[in-house]
Each structure stands twice: as C-alpha cells, then as structure tokens.
Amino acid sequence: xxxxxxxxxxxxxxxxxxxxxxxxxxxxxxxxxxxxxxxxxxxxxxxxxxxxxxxxxxxxxxxxxxxxxxxxxxxxxxxxxxxxxxxxxxxxxxxxxxxxxxxxxxxxxxxxxxxxxxxxxxxxxxxxxxxxxxxxxxxxxxxxxx
Amino acid sequence: xxxxxxxxxxxxxxxxxxxxxxxxxxxxxxxxxxxxxxxxxxxxxxxxxxxxxxxxxxxxxxxxxxxxxxxxxxxxxxxxxxxxxxxxxxxxxxxxxxxxxxxxxxxxxxxxxxxxxxxxxxxxxxxxxxxxxxxxxxxxxxxxxxxxxxxxxxxxxxxxxxxxxxxxxxxxxxxxxxxxxxxxxxxxxxxxxxxxxxxxxxxxxxxxxxxxxxxxxxxxxxxxxxxxxxxxxxxxxxxxxxxxxxxxxxxx
Lengths: 146, 252
Prior knowledge:
The complex is a heterodimer of chains A (146) and B (252).
Chain A: H1 3-30, E1 36-37, E2 42-43, E3 46-51, E4 55-61, E5 65-74, E6 78-89, E7 103-111, E8 122-126, E9 129-135
Parallel strand pairs in A: 2-7
Antiparallel strand pairs in A: 1-2, 3-4, 4-9, 5-6, 6-7, 8-9
Chain B: E1 2-5, E2 8-12, E3 22-26, H1 33-45, E4 48-55, E5 63-65, E6 68-70, E7 73-78, E8 81-86, H2 95-109, E9 113-121, E10 133-137, H3 140-148, E11 152-153, H4 162-172, E12 177-184, H5 191-205, H6 211-216, H7 218-224, H8 226-236
Parallel strand pairs in B: 3-8, 3-9, 9-12, 10-11
Antiparallel strand pairs in B: 1-2, 2-4, 4-7, 5-6, 7-8, 10-12
Helix pairs in contact in B: 1-5, 2-4
C-alpha cells in the first residue's frame, strides 16, 4: 500500500470518527422524529434537562397521568421514562393513521450527559410535572501544590 | 383587500370595517400562553375567520381544518374584536417584516387598543400555585387602563421577540398597545398561565370569557400542543426568551 493511500485512509477514518462523535453529541438536535408511535400507542412527552455542577435536573410534562403510574428506570448514563395515561387520548379528526389510534402511555429515553449516582435520585410529581434530581457521580482528587 | 410590507401579505377575505376595534394578538411563544388564550377567546366568542397572513419567510406549511385548506396564520373578527393567531412559530428572521406588516395594517384599522398576549418565563413556575399577570402600556392612556384594572405594571426588565419590536413601533407610530403576560413555564404549554391572561383580558375588553372552561381543558391542551411547543422552542432559540429573566444593564 502506498504512503499516499495510507494517508487518505487515515484521513477518511478521522472524518468517520468525527461524524460519529457529532451524531452522538448532537443527534437529538438533528434528528427529525415523530412524537407518537401508533404501533406502541404511545406519545413522547415534552422534557427538559438542566445540568448543574453536581446534579442533572430533568422535568417532564405528563398530563392525564397519576403519580403511581409513572415508571422511571436509570442506568449509569441513561434514563427511561414510562407513564400510563388515566384516559386514552384519541384525536378523531387528526391526520391519517393517528385518527384511529388511541394513545395509552408516554414513553421517552434520555441519554444522561455523565454517569450518575442512581441510588440517590429524588423524583417528585406536582400538577402533572415530573421532576427528577439526579446527583452526578463525582470523583474528587485533591491536588498537591508543589 | 391585499396589503404588502416587504415579503409579508396580510389578506382580508372579508373586509374589516369595524370602527376602533380591539385587536388581540396571540402568537406561539413562551408556554404558548398567548396562543392558548387567544384561541379560547376565538372559540368562546365564535369569532369568524376573515383573513390570513402569508409569506415566503414562513415555513411551507398549510393546515387543514374540517377538510378546508387554511393558512396557519389567521385573522378572526366579531363585533368590535379582531384576533390574530398563528399555528406555527414565527421564524426569527421574519419577526421584523411581520411586525412592520402588522403595524402598517393594524394602523389603518384605527384600533382602540392592541393587546399582545404572551407568557413570561419564570424558573420557579412549578412551585407557583397562582401566577401573576403583568402589563406594559405604550402611552398614558394604556397605562391608565392597566392601572384602572389593577393589573401590575412591568416596570423594569427585558422584553424580546415580536412583542418587543411591536411595542417599540407602537410608540413610534402612536398605536395604543398593551403587552399582557402571565408567569409561565418556558418549555411546556401552560393553560394555567393562559387562564390568568384571559382573566385580565376580560377586564380590559369587558368580556366574560369562561376561565374555568379553559382550565378544564388544560390536560387536553397540554397533550395536543406538545409538537407546537417543541417547534416553538426550536424557533425561540433565535430570540432567546430566557433574556427576559435577565436584569437590564442600564438604569432608567
């Protein structure tokens, strides 16, 4: 293999890696996706994520939902949210496939920006808004000054 | 009748001939408060669709209602009231042009008052059982209307988006305008905040819009408006609504 070809392959690999990183980091912004799934009969809730120095605060708007019907699952870096609706929602005059669909639940998965302390999470639910406070997993190292 | 201001067309399919109308504007912004409140007014008063606004600056979208093709930005009228609403967020690059076109068109109606309905983002909305409404008037007369109706004036702060430009142009062009806003979620549809705005609007326009009826539909509206809220948030990034939480840097 010539030196020139090796160089071209390395450049190509570099840009492929960069593209993967960009999609991973900003995928949610670029992705055009539908906020409902007729097969699973579920809607995607509106959510918001704020990161402070020691925690991640996630809120979700969950109308037609009771506290006991919310299921939150957290791994080191992923949060899964499911919630059943008290009343199935149907939009009889809306669109095509939607008009015949009854939606029974909300569902959303959120990628967390850092690893978290999953056993110290606090969730509250008030006026249909879910708030989840997730402490970050922080390793502190004291630096000696010479 | 067709008017043009740059690239925006405001079309009256039925000519509006009301003397000194009240003009209410509710466009998608913080918490969709203005839109929810204005739609409630349109539905309750059974206002008639009389016109629309179109532009190549807007996304290429039309909406279907009961099989009829419509522009997403519409003008309704009944008696002395005119309402302007949009079912799509206004792109930030169209704000100046749309404001110019609205000001030019509305000025010809010789309005008694223009009322811009909107949400005011507050970070602690989740903990507020009751939300406050605030108003801004562009002249002595509108400031007196605000005081007479015991609505709190917003004295110091930063205003962004179309309403900011509209207020500024209203002062320059002598159009009596009130911006009427309620504390709201920034990122979620907020029918509770819209209900507070409707209460104040009832006072300003001597209406009797049913606030309870709006609150009873709150959950339905929150489900239905998720997609518009998401689109509005994307669009609002251009106007930075969070700046309304900031302190103005200069003393007045």
